[in-house]
Amino acid sequence: MPLLLRLPARPGLRPARPSAKRVLDLLGAVALLTLLGTPLLLASGLLYATQGPRVLVSEPAAGLGGRPYRAWRFRVGKGRAGAALERSALAGLPQLLNVVRGEMSLVGPRPEPRTDRPERLLVRPGMTGLWQVSARSDLPWEEMDLLDRHYVENHWLGMDLAILAQTPRAAWRHGRP
User: Fold this and answer.
1) What distance in Å separates the CA atoms of residue 155 and residue 124, rounded to the nearest whole number?
2) Distance CA 44, CA 40 (A)
3) In angstroms, rounded to a whole number, what is the distance separating the alpha carbons of residues 150 and 158?
4) Contact predicate 108/163, CB 8 Å
5) Is the CB of residue 2 less than 8 Å from the CB of residue 134?
6) Separation between Cα atoms, residue 61 and residue 167, nearest integer Å
7) pLDDT tens per residue across span 39-63
8) How many Å apart are CA 92 and CA 143, to the nearest integer?
9) By the 8 A CB rule, do 55 and 48 touch?
10) What pTM does this model have?
11) Structural contact between residues 61 and 71, judged by C-beta atoms closer than 8 angstroms
12) Residue 145 — very low, low, confident or very high, per pLDDT cuts 50/70/90?
């Protein structure tokens, strides 16, 4: 059952205070970078050895208030190392640096290069969100957009924690053949 159905809107509940969400983002990103530092360095070395020196790529995205930034990812190519990173959903882990810099959040709507939907610009884009834990890329665009809008209109720290708790399972499910 999608997370959206298990986490209904909470009428009368105010969205997460930006400062509390930012603290969660910083603590989570630093903890993940510390925990995953060695695997990230190994992945970088493997990509460097198999695909050359350009290990990271950045993609343009619109952040909080429409502010442009560059979202970092591992460069995944046709080689075995790049394909393994993409399959395992680890290619986006360099975005933890975007979270530390305040350009992204751990949880939020999908990052987009630009948007004509101003409601998406009310929160920082996330590394994960309802779209990822509900069905990942199997959803049609309209349903992913609906999940993003639901998040923007109803997010609270409890929802963020529930999404973060479900993300590893969703990433594992995505990476399995």
Assistant:
1) 12
2) 6
3) 15
4) no
5) yes
6) 22
7) 899 989 988 998 889 999 999 999 9
8) 22
9) yes
10) 0.84
11) yes
12) confident
